[in-house]
Design a protein that fits this description.
CATH topology of the largest domain: Multidrug efflux transporter AcrB transmembrane fold
Radius of gyration: 31 Å
Oligomer: single chain
CATH superfamily of the largest domain: Multidrug efflux transporter AcrB transmembrane domain
Distance between the termini: 33 Å
Number of domains: 2
Shape: elongated
Helix content: 55-70%
Number of strands: 8
Largest sheet: 4 strands, antiparallel
Strand order of the largest sheet: 5-6-4-7
CATH class of the largest domain: Mainly Alpha
Length: about 400
């Protein structure tokens, strides 16, 4: 965008009507110099706690878009190729469980099952530790005679420590599994609709779109991790997914609320652009997001340790796994995806574009200075030296992100 400026050249002749094209990006060199100056004066922890805005997250949003796109691509490919390991509640089948003995290793149980049935089981896994350790066999639906045949083979192989009374079996029909799947998808859809209504009322359309995109990112990434690692999907997994989506939305709302506070009067000043104010909001809430994530992860890890190694409760393990994955993914999306996307959507608006151009023009000194009162029409003030202004801006940086007023 070209602007007309007026000044004098080196020979003292007036140079009026000179066109200056401003193609400076939203986060120009002055912003980078300011952040670099703050980074040199303060330690990492000091910048985290004070929220000075020295971490350039929004300004490097193209890099974070590429990282997020790579994560999404890997997750989608895994979901399409590998699929999910669905639990017995979704697929249906028979599950046989019994207490573990000194001889009941996973390979030994698989061999005993194969010799008795002539085929391999779907999964054989152990849960718990010590006297509460159990072995769980999951296979396709078996009739009563087949279940008794396997039980007899297990008692013969691992007795006398294992008796028929120690073996339990449960069946889930495929019809029941289909109903569970439909109810899980319905619960997820209802949750997303309620969330969409809330954020549409709470925020403007750009913030609503960014928040919904962040939620979809969380769902795809969490599902992709389960597909990649092969974690079993159970009803507890669905419950945990809804829980961590609520956590992710809460984290995004907190950041957006700070963004909304910072940009409330941004169009009435020419000190910072919308993107810079949003980046400052992310920095101001960054330590809170880290603390919330760490505090949430610690009890989840404790829950998983108690569930897997002490109690052997599979439901708690499934619930802890989905929450651990979701909390980490939600923290990433609220910081590195939701706010940068919000800035990208906002900068499509004409008023934001105009304001950004004014801020950058003022910062680079390309705007013409006003005519001094009482001076003839042929006399104008000289243009401000851009180099001096940029260096002064860097020297005057305070940890709070404010500049000192010149005398």
């Amino acid at each position: 965008m070209a602007r007309e400026t007026s000044g004098r050249d080196d020979s003292g002749r007036e140079d009026s009507g000179r066109a200056v094209r401003d193609e400076t990006p939203v986060f120009d060199q002055t912003t980078e110099d300011r952040n670099r100056a703050v980074a040199q004066k303060h330690s990492l922890l000091s910048r985290l706690y004070t929220g000075t805005g020295a971490f350039e997250i929004v300004g490097k949003r193209k890099m974070w878009y590429l990282v997020s796109a790579a994560i999404i691509a890997i997750c989608l490919i895994s979901i399409a190729v590998r699929g999910f390991t669905l639990g017995i509640d979704f697929e249906g089948g028979t599950q046989i469980s019994f207490k573990s003995t000194s001889e009941t290793s996973v390979s030994a149980v698989e061999d005993a099952f194969s010799e008795a049935m002539g085929s391999d089981p779907q999964t054989v896994q152990t849960a718990g530790s010590g006297s509460s350790k159990t072995v769980q066999i999951r296979t396709e639906t078996l009739n009563q005679a087949e279940t008794e045949k396997i039980s007899a083979a297990l008692v013969e192989r691992f007795g006398p420590d294992l008796t028929a009374n120690d073996i339990n079996s449960s069946d889930v029909s495929s019809t029941w599994g289909g109903e569970i799947t439909q109810k899980a998808l319905l619960a997820l859809a209802v949750f997303l609709v309620i969330v969409l209504i809330y954020i549409a009322v709470r925020f403007d359309k750009e913030m609503s779109a960014a928040a919904m995109a962040s939620l979809i990112f969380d769902i795809v990434c969490t599902a992709g991790v389960y597909s990649l690692v092969g974690f079993e999907v159970t009803p507890a997994t669905v419950i945990g997914l809804l829980t961590i989506l609520g956590f992710s939305l809460y984290d995004t709302v907190v950041v957006f609320d700070k963004v909304e506070e910072n940009v409330r009067a941004v169009l009435h000043t020419t000190r910072r652009t919308y993107g810079e104010q949003a980046n400052l909001a992310v920095n101001q809430t960054l330590m809170r997001s880290i603390n919330t994530t760490v505090i949430s992860v610690l009890p989840i890890i404790a829950l998983m340790i108690i569930a897997v190694w002490l109690l052997g409760v599979g439901t708690l393990k499934d619930l802890g796994l989905i929450q651990l994955v979701g909390v980490v993914v939600g923290a990433y999306s609220s910081i590195f995806f939701a706010t940068p996307l919000l800035v990208t959507l906002k900068e499509r608006r004409s008023d934001i574009k105009t304001h950004t151009a004014k801020v950058l023009a003022r910062r680079s000194g390309s705007d013409a200075e006003p005519v001094a009162a009482g001076v003839g029409a042929g006399s104008r003030r000289s243009t401000v030296d851009t180099t001096k202004r940029s260096s002064a801006a860097v020297d005057d940086v305070r940890p709070s992100g404010k500049r000192r007023r010149s005398n």
